[in-house]
Amino acid sequence: MLRQNWRLILRAQLKIGREAVQAWRGPAARARLRGQAAGLWGWFKMRSKRRQIQAARRIDDEILTAILTPVDDSPQHG
């Protein structure tokens, strides 16, 4: 799914980063940027473990995509 959605993920992360840079003086903005940097660092550190996990997964991308809620939608309860 990452291969399929990397552009959307990158676009969303760049938007968050741009908004944080524009509000640089706020502690929440700095926290967002630190969080993004930590996430990127963590991704590089966990790549090999991620490959192992993906090799052992039990469902395919289509099933997982069907059960996920789009980012802009709220989950429907009830």
Helical fraction equals over 70%
Shape: extended
Total separate domains: 1
Average pLDDT, rounded to a whole number, is 81
Number of helices: 3
Integer-rounded radius of gyration: 16 Å
Biggest β-sheet description: none
Low-confidence stretches: none
Distance between the termini: 28 Å
What's the SSE pattern? Answer: HHH
Strand content: under 5%
Give the total of beta strands. Answer: 0
Oligomeric state of the chains? single chain
Task: Give the helix/strand class.
Answer: mainly alpha
Quick take:
The protein is mostly helical and 78 residues long.
How does this structure look, described?
- The chain is mainly alpha-helical and 78 residues long.
- The protein has one domain.
- The chain has helices spanning 2-22, 27-55, 61-67.
- Helix 1 (2-22) packs antiparallel against helix 2.
List keywords for this structure.
78 residues; mainly alpha; extended
Topology:
Elements: H1 2-22, H2 27-55, H3 61-67
Helix pairs in contact: 1-2
